[in-house]
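User
New here, explain this?
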Amino acid sequence: MTPETIDPDRIGPELSLEGVALPPTVGERIGQLFGTDERPRTVADWMTVTRATLGDSYDRQPTVEDLCTSDDGAHTFVGESGDGAGNDSDGDDASQSYVCVLDPLAYPFLVDEPGTVHSETPVRENEVVFEVGRDGVTVTPGDAVVSVGVSDHVDAIETVTFETVYRQVCGYIHAFEDEAEYEQWAGEVEAATTSLPAEEGVALAREIAVTLFDAER
């Protein structure tokens, strides 16, 4: 029996990357990082310059192997079968952790595997849970938000690598229990950031999987 696959159009709200505006400070930091003449104004612009720049650096487009994994990352994906991303099916270690919450949220769409993302929040150290199923997504707590950001300490460099993105971007993409926790964190972190409702964060990860990684839709 063939397992039922994920239908991306059922997961998260309808979202167009062209419709997700970047605050000027975030766009300016992204422009500095990639050395663009004009700051990206939308997430679509951001993905376009990311795809072009990394394509030039590696002569290929990103793959699932390029996600920012970590042994002790704050964001952990567990597959529906109990097998973690990239692990064997023996069930001994049924998880894979990441530095950036968008990576484990994109993973189900890259490999067509439903699963759950457990995300530790950076201020209260509580948990936000994303259940990405075949017919939808459930986020607990319901007021959770996701941040997107870029370090304040960034300069254009000649060759942007995956490690550059991990260092300057991934550490500022987190989940929070609510907007108040995000605002507390954003007021202290040395980065330009913005926030999105958590379900929109899932949809954002889905669209990034499609546009940056060429995941099938």
In short: The radius of gyration is 16 Å. The domain at 8-211 is CATH 3.15.10.60 (Bactericidal permeability-increasing protein; domain 1).
